Amino acid sequence: MSMPPFRPVAGRDASIRAGTREVKVQTDPFRKVKEATAQEICSRVDLSQEAKAFLLPSLSPQGFLALLADNKHIGDAVRFLAFALPIREAIWWACVTVGGSQDQLSAPEADCLERATAWVYEPGDARRRACMEAAEGANLEGAAAYAALAVFWSGGSLAPANMPDALPDPSLGAIGVGASVLLAITGGEPQKLDQRFEAAMLRGMDIANGGNGRLKSDRPATNLER
């Protein structure tokens, strides 16, 4: 297998440091985010009124995300980044967040994560539909299932293969990513919520800057991920 599709980028001082409350706002634009302002992205995202209060017409995506994260607007920060990233990178963020935040996955959850990861490496309709099968095997519940659902919702018909096409709403894939990451963040011990949130943001910002979203504390990559 080739190297992961998203490689770390040196020279960026943009991360939320896991385990602290400090957020640094980078001056360079996120490499993987095409919009110049946060407002362009927010037009597609369902944000709280509290989050919208931070929004200024000229505010950059990285600046807005830092404000949301620093003020612990967890749901808003996750949803914003899910919509800011291209869908393939967003789904990869869900995969590494779920894989890194849950100590042990059930067999159906592991299947969801494996199939979603396989799609990220080689997107295609067969792998997309296989993700829906895996999500159904997990009863359409949990962070891993929503990562797989995000793949299925990312594009292509939602109807069975032998039926007329039924295309998804363009926002559905990002909604699935946001649900997956939020479930991974909120699903563990309450006293470690801030730590899981900051780690998820660190991963997402690394991916937004062209990195692979992995932390030093992650368990070794599987054969698929090498």
| Unreliable spans | 1-23
- Count up the helices: 10
Structural class by sheet pairing and helices: mainly alpha
Percent of sequence in beta strands: under 5%
Structure write-up:
This protein has 226 residues and is mainly alpha-helical. The chain has helices at 38-42, 49-52, 61-70, 74-84, 87-101, 107-121, 125-137, 143-152, 172-186, 193-208.
Summarize the helices and strands and which ones pair or pack:
Elements: H1 38-42, H2 49-52, H3 61-70, H4 74-84, H5 87-101, H6 107-121, H7 125-137, H8 143-152, H9 172-186, H10 193-208
Question: Main attributes?
Answer:
226 residues, mainly alpha, 10 helices, globular
In short, what is this structure?
By secondary structure, the protein is mostly helical. Helix content is 50%, strand content 0%.
